[in-house]
Each structure stands twice: as C-alpha cells, then as structure tokens.
Amino acid sequence: MGTEIPATMQAMGFDEPGGPDVLRAETLPVPHPAQGEVLIRVAYAGVNRPDVIQRMGHYPAPPNASPIPGLEVAGEIVAQGESVTPDWVGQNVCALVTGGGYAEYCIAKIAHCLPVPEGMPLAEAAALPETLFTVWHNVFERGWACEGETLLVHGGTSGIGTMAIKLGKLFGLTVIVTCGSDAKCSAATKIGADHAINYKSADFVEEVKRVTHGNGAQLVLDMVSGDYVPRNLACLAEDGRHVTIAVLGGMKTELNMAQIMAKRLTLTGSTLRARPDAFKALLCDEIFQTVWPHVEDGSLRPEMDQTFPLEEAAAAHAHMEAGGHIGKIVLGTGND
C-alpha cells in the first residue's frame, strides 16, 4: 500500500439498533484489499432503504460483510489486492458493496466496480450502483421487460422508483408510477413517468385499468408487498409478471390462485445483498455492456435529492424516513 493511505479512518456505525440518532462516528483501521479486491478512497456513499432497515435491527449484514452500513460508493482506487489486473490505482470507480460504505475508505470486489465516466460528478456515480443493479436485474432479467410493454412501479419518487422510470424510458417501456402526493406525482412525470397516480386520492387499480384502456400492465415492480399484492395482480395483463424487491407493507398476503392461473401470471422476486459474488460480477458485466454506454454519453443520470456530510448520516436517515425526498440521498466525505 502507498504511504498516502492512513492507518485509520472515520466511519459511521452504531452499537445497538434504533432510530437515526444511534448512528455515531468511530475511528477504525483502514482495511486492506484481499485477492480480487480494491481499496476505494470514498468520495460519496449512497444512502438506501436497506441501510435504514439494518440500522433498525431488521437487516443484519451477511457473513463476512462489514457491519458498517452503506451498499454503494464512488471514489478513487488507492490500493489493489493480488490477482487484480491491470493496474487500477488512481482510477475513479463506483461500486456495489455488501457493507462498509459509510466510511472514508471501503473495500470492493473489482468485479463489482464500474468506471466513472470523465466529467461525471462522483456524487452522481455513488448514487447509481444499488438502484441500477436492482432495477436492471428485477425489471429486465427477472421481469423480462420488453420494448413496448407497460411497467407499474410503486414509490415513483424513491431511489428505486426514479431509476425504474429512467431505465424504463431508456429501453422503450411505458411507465406508470404511484406516489403519495400530487407534488410527487408532478415530480415523477417531470423525471419521465408516462402516468403518475396519487394512491391517496385515487384507486391505483382502477387508474391503471383506465390508462391502459383495460389491458393492464405487463409488469409490476413491487416494493410494498403485503395487501398490495392482490391489487397488483388485478393490475396485470394476461401473462403479466409481478416482481417483489421489498416487503415494506408486510410479508404475508392472501392470493386468489384461480386468478393467477386464468391470467397465466408469474410471481417472482429477489434480494441483492446476499447473492454470491459471482452472480454480482455477471450482473455488473451485463450492466457495463448494456446500460453503461448510456451513462457514458450522459443519457442516464440518477435523480439526486440531497448530499449530507458523512458525519451527518443520522440526519440523512431521518430525511429518508420522513419520506419527502425525490431521488437519491448521498453522504460526502470531503474526499472528492
């Protein structure tokens, strides 16, 4: 390792699960990259809903992952482990990580890193991996989305929702979103959604039927689960696909299996964090081949909400939990 790398770093962790105020600064040793890994001097780290759920004690880090929150980072590679070729030191990358993002330095698998295009702000780069990997895998790989189809997304102004809008429009989908206010609906349509439904003032099932002229959507990206699932299935066209990526509204529901058979529906879902490194490497490579050219030419950029200093991670979490954000929240270390 080069002499410019300090022995210790600042990170944001917590001792016991709880509200945002349990997050506190700590001094930790700077980690050393092992085989196939790089050390990133973090400029920015993305804040994601799983970080909040982990802090609340409901989403522990997988085995061998850092207990420090943070699933995506952007910054400069300052050291690399054995078998990493060619020489990546000095390059700016963004990376999907299994933890450790809320720190001045973070370990990443080189196979889970993407090069930051010239001129792209590192804050924007840090806001891409978690939502991009999640939406690409679930909408296009698991959900088989095809050009000309209609996608329904709940939480249209969230990090996932805004990425689903942008990716959907980039690849020829009609995108319908639900949001909790007229202001958020307006924001979602400005971002690119074809239709935005205020689920507090309208029945989204009826609205989806109306805007699809009774045909329904081919695909639902579901972050709510619970009692939303039967309503989502009512929104689907024949041969429709229902993809669940979170259970914010509860894990259980009652389904009408006759409806599923009659409409030939497919129900699937996935999580990302605990998937094997090899799977994430393949996903990263597919994104690099398929989506990254749109990042490089500027046609895909994350929707940015607010940047907080790393030491104000508690305020960033409180901001996310308040629900007023539109797009991505990131933490800055001052290293850019």
TrEMBL record:
Keyword Magnesium attributed: no
A Pfam family of the record is ADH_N
Keyword list (alphabetical) reads: NADP, Oxidoreductase
Record-level Gene Ontology MF annotations: NADPH binding; oxidoreductase activity, acting on NAD(P)H
The Enoyl reductase (ER) domain extends over 18-331
Note whether Phosphoprotein occurs among the keywords: no
- InterPro entries in UniProt: ADH-like_C (IPR013149), ADH-like_N (IPR013154), ER (IPR020843), GroES-like_sf (IPR011032), NAD(P)-bd_dom_sf (IPR036291), Quinone_OxRdtase_PIG3 (IPR014189)
Record-given protein name: Zinc-binding dehydrogenase
